[in-house]
Amino acid sequence: MKHIVIPTATALAICLTSTALQAATYKIATNGPSDAGPGLLLEQFADAVEDRTDGRVAFQIFANGTLGDQSEYLQQIQSGVIDMGIVNSATLENILPALGVINLPYMFRDREEYGEVMSDPEVLEMLFDGAEDQNFLPLGFLSNGFRSLYTIEPVESIEDLQGMKIRTMSSNTYIEMLELFGAAPTPMSFGDVFPALQQGVIDGAEGTLSTLYDLNFGQAAKYGILTEQTRLTDFVVTSTRFQDALSEEDLAVVKEEFATISERSVEEIDQAFAESAQRAVKEFGVEIIEIDKQPFIDAVQPMYVEAAENEYQRPVIEKIFSMTDRELP
Q: What is the DSSP letter of 306?
């Protein structure tokens, strides 16, 4: 006669506890919208990971700065309170000086060059050397398109920019760049940009022209200036605690799925941002002004000379220039 084993309450509790330990929901922080650009790609990444891990690894995305600005939630990532988040290269360069290299104006001449460099594992390793000592690790990058200028008055040459108050991030690289352009850099929180444009506190800002539509900035800034000076990169970084908590199998899935959206972001983000800029033209009456970039390129050459003398940045510049067939000035 066969014996039927009926699980005891204790056995059931152990089983349920084991299942709970295998499944977890992790927090992702971003200060951008969830329905445009990198936010959409993050959603696709989260869905793919949850599907491939059979729900063992799930993510909840906190968008629009719900968990603070990038500097604030980066600290929480380092402490393990938040598991991962989008942190741009301008914010990160204040911690890891090597990252200042990819913020240099006109470092990347086109989208294809950018994709080749940023997908190189050796470049990523060089950029994030020392990050683990500060309790965070890179997962990968998301392209954030070319950054240009948007202003409340037309700018048709570098001379027109002289003395204009232009909002920027609290990044030494971006501040120096705008100074060399002849503008008056005005660091402020991203959330304050729209009212500052409306009230005339600033004359413009630097950023992706997609924000003219996606965040309604085109209601205040009627001119998009195609300077295309930088490609600010969004990195997704994780706490070391998050990566330690995953099995090797699940961590491999997370990395594979993020590599997929990193690659897709290079083309898809540029296309999406260009479409948004055109919507701003149609719906808000924004004018996109093409401008001679050479005076801007010439103006920032001292930044390359300075970076080449920096012990953290020179090896990265040399690596990128060797990949893109260029020489230091």
A: H
